[in-house]
Model the fold of this input.
Amino acid sequence: WLLVRRPDGRHELFAKPHDRWEVNEVANRGLEAVEQLSAAWSEFAQLAQSPQATELAPLSKLLLESID
Done:
């Protein structure tokens, strides 16, 4: 997955590596993936700022597996 956050607050989602050139935007069909990726990014950003950083939560099966 590639999640792109636009300055206007919109999200774009692309299935990588299958969509090499990022031509098939699928955020409207992958709302759960958008939510999970956003949450994972927020968690990472918080931990990166913490002097006592702990481990990140594991990613879900949805984010780890191919969409084939």
The chain has a mean pLDDT of 90.
